[in-house]
Amino acid sequence: MNYRKKPAAPGATPAATSDTGRKRSTINDIARMANVSKKTVSRVINDSPFVKEETRLKINTIIRELGFAPDPQARGLAFRRSFLIGMIYDNPTAQYVVNMQQGILDAMRGTSFELVIRPCDRSLATFLPDMRHFIERQKLFGVVLTPSVSEDDRFVRLLQEIDCPYVRIASVPLDTPATMVVTHDFSGAADAARHLADLGHELIAHISGPASFRSSHERRRGFTEGLAERGLKLRRTYDREAGYTFDSGMAAAQELLSLNPRPTAIFAGNDEMAAGVYKAARNLGLAIPGDLSVVGFDDSPVASRMWPLLTSVRLPIRDMGRMAAEKLFHKRTERRARNDDVTEVIPTLVIRESSARPPVA
Amino acid sequence: MNYRKKPAAPGATPAATSDTGRKRSTINDIARMANVSKKTVSRVINDSPFVKEETRLKINTIIRELGFAPDPQARGLAFRRSFLIGMIYDNPTAQYVVNMQQGILDAMRGTSFELVIRPCDRSLATFLPDMRHFIERQKLFGVVLTPSVSEDDRFVRLLQEIDCPYVRIASVPLDTPATMVVTHDFSGAADAARHLADLGHELIAHISGPASFRSSHERRRGFTEGLAERGLKLRRTYDREAGYTFDSGMAAAQELLSLNPRPTAIFAGNDEMAAGVYKAARNLGLAIPGDLSVVGFDDSPVASRMWPLLTSVRLPIRDMGRMAAEKLFHKRTERRARNDDVTEVIPTLVIRESSARPPVA
DNA sequence: CTGAAAGCGCTTACAG
DNA sequence: CTGAAAGCGCTTACAG
Q1: Are both A172 and A219 inside the same structural domain?
Q2: Which of A173, A209, A228, A278 could cysteine-pair with A216, CB 3.0–4.6 Å?
Q3: Do A177 and A189 share a domain, yes or no?
Q4: Nucleotides in chain C near protein beta carbons (<7 Å)
Q5: Closest residue (CA to C1') to nucleotide C6 in the complex
Q6: Angle at A269 between CA A263 and CA A273, to 5 degrees
Q7: How many domains, in total, are found in chain A?
Q8: pTM exceeding the 0.85 threshold for the entire prediction
């Protein structure tokens, strides 16, 4: 119930008590031991340039010896801002969420920040007030937004209004460069198109994600563009919108595979839908890749658990999380210049077993 | 950079400014408006019984009108304890982690607590000091531990030493009931055994997880027990230890499936290993469930993406997270009695397509 | 380059 | 049932 070890004996200064039995030391203890004011210790903690090198050294030595770490709550109270970074997300894929968290934590290692997580549902009427309440109450240092909540302009306006720093991860540059990590879904999808075209496919279909996600459009655009480079077009009937889910992918594939002529390849907007395509093909007795080539997007763990192994477009999610958090931290530091540029992420095509030459007609 | 809206005009009380332009109100504002001391407001916030009903009503009305919420940092500083709950985990399965987080967040909804997450690696030499530093520095209100870090007694001793409340989720009652959410992996595994026996299998193999996980033993024990109920024994050669991973599951299955007589059913300690079994069967040209029945454990999302759909044992991960967090909160409240009991969770067998009658010999 | 005073927004310990 | 004083561990604003 109490984070101080046995309270110090009356009259004993914290420094005088043993290492095991002592209560946590404070800035006052450090100041006393270094024979300076606590304000000077505070300057050292906060990397102020206005401290004599000798003084800084002495204080740092004592800090290290005592294992002192300033209390984030006290610091936050005085700063009028906490040392908490929020991750706000509505992506339903567990692996995506966990990788992103890992990346943000990577960037936070060694800092005094902690990560608080906040799933959300933009379709709720209370979404904006809830978020406002959460952020203002916790006085968050900043937030990282992932798709699709990162694409919500009402929300971003709210963040600006309450002066909460943010970084947005999205497939298009929606905002000033300093706040953006842009994933070039476009280019990854174009790679997928070239790959299928180069294998000799001409009857190529696409199942895109829901129109409410920018990534759906980017992936579809990139795919169309990649096909165009090879002199191919995405036919109207081969172009289906689904919902980024297994079931919607399966339904779309079922329709596509009953067309005449039947497509020999399908590019699914994500791996979940690609798994649905597998199922639909199986139901129809079609072999992958013998009768049908399939390419996904995300390179999620299922991609390498499926049979045959799924060719897919990989985004370095963890790196993206790290970069986003770094932008947040560096925003107020000397490295500003570097982080004022937009951060760009290029996906890579991972070729596995699900894509091959089309069947001989 | 500042969480207060336009600073109030000099002389203007917060209450006098408009709703949009006002700075966040504090306990002092409430006290002034209610004509009481801030201590009394504090009592209302903290649900003290020593407040006249009338006073409480008046204060609560004003709190509601102003949308006042006490500052967690200030409160934490005075309490010497933050309003942060830590989730500490080393489970590698993304879906598990995310579901657990969701469950904990479910329990926290409507409270003033927030969730900070902390993946860890028990094999690191700095594990214990790192954790200690993290918990003491943040003055965590409490932590939820999931397997396998929940099984680490050195760590739990550290928590007790620094007086950090905790709840452990594990497959065996390792601790006092008030700190335990116990998952009966034993009973789920016994269900799996009965299911396979009742289908007519006699040559039944098991691939267990690593010995360092208690769940490995519980699942193996339960499985053996279930078989025994049906007059069956788990043969030595049919009993393999693997690592809860895809590759290790595949390797173990490869060995099992080359035995003579070949087992007609395999119970894998988790779904990842079951996926490895699928792969090994496919490599050998064996049909599931025609030649081989497979049962997994976890009922992870892959289970219903695999082909054929995997029969698996399901644990309500999200509920477990919620219950664990509730135990943490209620520990200090009037509901103590109820939460002093051990919380128990029973898994359920989800029968899908991967288990059927054994092939006719 | 350094420090004394006041304050961040709450609660504790004490008193009545 | 209620309140005035002191304090939680830091930083800001000001002064030198």
Answers
A1: no
A2: A209
A3: no
A4: 1-5, 7-13
A5: A78
A6: 80
A7: 3
A8: yes
